Every structure is written in structure tokens, then in C-alpha cells.
């Protein structure tokens, strides 16, 4: 027996070992598939999206696409929190206004999970400038000005990890399997 063989094997008959081997292989295959579909992205509905009552619509679009909600909370972020979140924009002329606007009311912070969640999340949101967004995207359907573009979405897997860590504690992230997982993902 190899080193990765379960110790119970020596107590089982040939038929039971075969069954246990099949179960172990199936479990390992499922774990591989789960890893393939488990990229996470950070999506925030900005104060204008909340004021306009768009939370349900935006959540619905991610759910209908097949993504899984791993965390959600309503929070009014502090100036310091927002400055850290947008630190890559601190030298831009619109930075101060962005921080003021984002702190003007609650933000619906969310973590969505699924295959290529960052890339597809950005596609669902549309272009940062709503006037360049296609109809059918969230910004294309619900926004006009860049300064009131309804949502924020992570632009890369690395920034998603950073943003998720900034907005959520580890214990706030939920790990679960959607009942419809096998109807969304072929493999």
C-alpha cells in the first residue's frame, strides 16, 4: 500500500477497498472542480445605487448569471477606509470628491464567487464611464455620469483579494455549495 492509502484499507476486503477508492477519487475530482469555479471578486454598490433602490436588481444580475454570493454587508465606510481602498487614485484630481461621495451614505459590500468572477463581474458592470457602457450592463442601464456609476468591481484577481481583505474579516466569508452548481458548471 502507498503512503496516501487510508489506514483502514488493511481492515477492508477487496470489494470495500474498491468502493472506498472510488469515493476518494470522486471527492478529489469534486474538489478540483470546486477550485476551478472558486475565484472571488469584490463588488460594491455605491451610495447612489442604494439611494436609487438598485441593490436587488444588481444582486439579481449576478445570481442569474450563476455567481454565488459569499459575503454581503451594508456599511458606511470611514474616510480612512475609503482612502485605503482607493489609494491607487490618490494623485488624481477627482480623489477628494470620490472619497466624499463614497462616504456620503451606505455601501453594499459583496463578495461574489465563480469561474472568472473578476473578469465577468466587470463585464456585468460595464465600462467605468457609463456612457461607454453597453446596454444590458448595470452601468449601461442605470448610470450616466462617471461620478455616479452605481458600482465598484475589482479589476484583477490580486486587487480582488486585497479589497476583500479590506472590507471583510475572514469569518464573514461563507463557503457553501449552491444547489444549482452542477446546472451552472459543466466541469
TrEMBL record:
It catalyses: a 2'-deoxyribonucleoside 5'-diphosphate + ATP = a 2'-deoxyribonucleoside 5'-triphosphate + ADP. SUPFAM superfamilies: Nucleoside diphosphate kinase, NDK. The keyword Transferase applies. The active site is at residue 152. The keyword Transferase applies. Gene3D superfamilies: Nucleoside diphosphate kinase-like domain. Residues 38-175 form the Nucleoside diphosphate kinase-like domain. Keywords: ATP-binding, Kinase, Nucleotide-binding, Transferase. Its cofactor is Mg(2+). ATP binds at residues 46, 94, 122, 128, 139, 149. GO terms for biological process: CTP biosynthetic process; GTP biosynthetic process; UTP biosynthetic process. This is Nucleoside diphosphate kinase. It comes from Recurvomyces mirabilis. The gene is ndk1.
Amino acid at each position: 500500500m502507498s503512503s496516501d492509502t487510508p489506514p483502514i484499507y488493511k481492515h477492508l476486503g477487496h470489494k470495500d477497498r474498491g468502493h472506498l477508492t472510488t469515493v476518494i477519487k470522486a471527492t478529489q475530482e469534486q474538489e478540483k472542480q470546486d477550485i476551478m469555479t472558486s475565484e472571488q471578486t469584490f463588488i460594491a454598490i455605491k451610495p447612489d445605487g442604494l439611494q436609487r433602490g438598485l441593490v436587488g436588481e444588481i444582486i439579481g444580475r449576478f445570481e442569474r448569471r450563476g455567481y454565488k454570493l459569499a459575503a454581503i454587508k451594508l456599511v458606511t465606510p470611514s474616510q480612512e477606509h475609503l482612502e485605503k481602498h482607493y489609494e491607487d487614485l490618490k494623485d488624481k484630481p477627482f480623489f477628494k470628491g470620490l472619497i466624499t461621495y463614497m462616504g456620503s451614505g451606505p455601501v453594499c459590500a459583496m463578495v461574489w464567487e465563480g469561474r472568472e468572477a473578476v473578469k465577468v463581474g466587470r463585464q456585468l458592470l460595464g465600462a467605468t464611464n457609463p456612457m461607454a457602457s453597453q446596454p444590458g450592463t448595470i452601468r449601461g442601464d442605470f448610470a450616466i455620469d462617471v461620478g455616479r456609476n452605481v458600482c465598484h468591481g475589482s479589476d484583477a484577481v490580486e486587487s480582488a483579494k486585497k479589497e476583500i481583505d479590506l472590507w471583510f474579516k475572514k469569518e464573514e466569508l461563507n463557503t457553501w455549495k449552491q444547489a444549482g452548481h452542477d446546472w451552472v458548471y459543466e466541469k
